[in-house]
Amino acid sequence: MHKGIAIAGNMLVDNVKAVRTYPKAGMLADIVEVRRSVGGCVPNTLLDIAKMQSGIPLTAIGKVGRDGDGRYIIERLKEDGVDVSKVVTSDTLTSFSDAMSAQDSGERTFFHFRGANAAFSPADVDLDALECDLLHVGYVLLLDAFDQRDGQYGTVMARFLHDAQQKGILTSIDAVSDSEGRFAEIVTPALRYCDYAIMNEIEGCAVSGLAPRDEQGKILVSNIEKTLRQFIEHGVRRRAVIHCPEAGFCMDAQEGFAVVPSLDLPKGYIQGSVGAGDAFCAGCLHEIYQGASAEQMLEYASAAAAANLSAADSVSGMKCETELRKMMKEWRRKAL
Question: When comparing pLDDT for 312 and 203, which is higher?
Answer without folding.
Answer: 203
